[in-house]
Amino acid sequence: MTAESRDRIIALLARQQPKAILGTQESEWVDFKTAGPNGPYDLGTDKGKFELAKDVAAFANTRGGLIVCGFRAKRRPTDLHEAAQKEIPFAKRLVNTDTYKEIITEYVRPLIDVSFLWFEDASDPDLGYFVIEVQALPESKRWALVVKTLSEDGNLVKGGVAVPRRHSDKTPYLTADEVYQAVNAGLRGAPELAVDLAVATGSVSDVEVTASVVDRLLEDRRRELLASLPRRKADESPRRQREGLTLSDSEKQLLHDVQRLRDLNDLVPTMMSRDSRTPQQYRAEVDAYLEKCGRQLPSMLRGIWAQQGAPLVLRLANRSDVMLHQVEVIATVSSEYTAVLWIQPSGAASTPAMLPWPEPPAPYGSKT
C-alpha cells in the first residue's frame, strides 16, 4: 500500500500506521528524510540551515508539500524515483520547532505558511515522526527566495539569493536567465485580469477505498467462483481406524478397494464434462484472476461512485473591463499523476453488486 496525497500521509501517521506509507515515491509534494544524531537537519551548521530553507522554499514555489522525517528513501533499479523503504522513528528532543521557525523566518522571503507536526510511534512513545507541511505561495507572490547562498566549503554567503523549486523528486534552482526574465516581467508591471473561477454546482469529496473493502469483495468473489468445485466428502474411514486402532491386512485391502471405487465414481462427472483441469489447477486460475481484480477494484469502485454523483460545474466570470477573446483553464499536475475528481453519493455502499468484474475462468466441470 502507498499514500497518494498529503492528507493520506498525515492520516496514516495519526493512526500510527507508518508501514502503510512504505512504497510511496518522492514527488513534487513529498520528500522523505532520515534523522541523524542532530535531527533531520543539523541546524548547528550553515549547511543544515541552508538545506532547511532551500527545501521549504522549493515546496512553496511549486504546489506545497510535506517534508516527512523518519523514513529512509531509496531508489530501486526498476523505479524512476526514490521511495520510502523503511520507517526509522527518532527522539522528539532532536527537533526544536522554535529553532526551525527562526531559521525559516530569517532565510526565506517572503514569509511562508509552514506547519510542524509530530506523531508518536506505536511501539515507543518516546520516538516518532516529524512532518513539515509547506503551503504553496500564490502566483502573485512568487518567487520564494533563500536570501543566502552556500559556498563550496559549506558556509553561508551573504549577498546572494537562491530560487529553488520542486520538480518531481528533485530540487533544481531557477537559472540566471529565468531570474532575469522574472525580474524584468515584474518591472514592466503587466496589468492583472480580475478573473474569478468558482464552483457553481456539484460537490467533491475524497473517496477512500480501504483495503478491508477490497479484501471483503475479493473473498465473496472467491467463494462464488469456487462453488463449482466438487465438495470434499467427510472422513469415511472405518471407525476403528479413526480411533487409532490397527487394521488387519484383510481390512486394509478391503478399505483400499472401496477407496478405488470412490475415486472412479468421482471421475465420472469430470470425464462427462471433458474438463482437462484438476481442482488444483482451477484454484490456481481463480487466484490469478482475483489478483488481477485486486489491482482494478479501487478504480472500479471510484468509477461507479463518480457516475452516480452530480457533475462538478465550474463558473468562470470576468470581473474586469478587459475583453477576453480566448480562455483556457489548465489543471497543472506532475507527470507521474493524473488529476481526477471523485464524487461519492450517499448510496455508495450499495454499488459493489454493479461492479464490472473482468471475465472469470470457466467454472470447474465445464467443457474446456
Could you name the key traits of this structure?
single chain, 368 residues, alpha+beta, five-stranded mixed sheet, two-stranded antiparallel ribbon, 8 helices
What portion of the residues fall into strands of 2 or more residues?
15-25%
Main β-sheet, in a few words?
Answer: 5 strands, mixed
Distance between the termini: 37 Å
What does the average pLDDT come to?
A: 80
Percent of residues in helices comes to 25-40%
Shape: elongated
**Structural class label:** alpha+beta
Number of helix segments?
Answer: 8
Poorly predicted parts: 333-351
Order of helices and strands: HEHEEEEHEEEEEEHEHHHHE
Query: Rg from C-alpha positions?
Result: 31 Å
Number of strands: 13
Give a concise summary.
The protein has eight helices and 13 strands. It is 33% helix and 15% strand. The protein is an alpha+beta fold and 368 residues long.
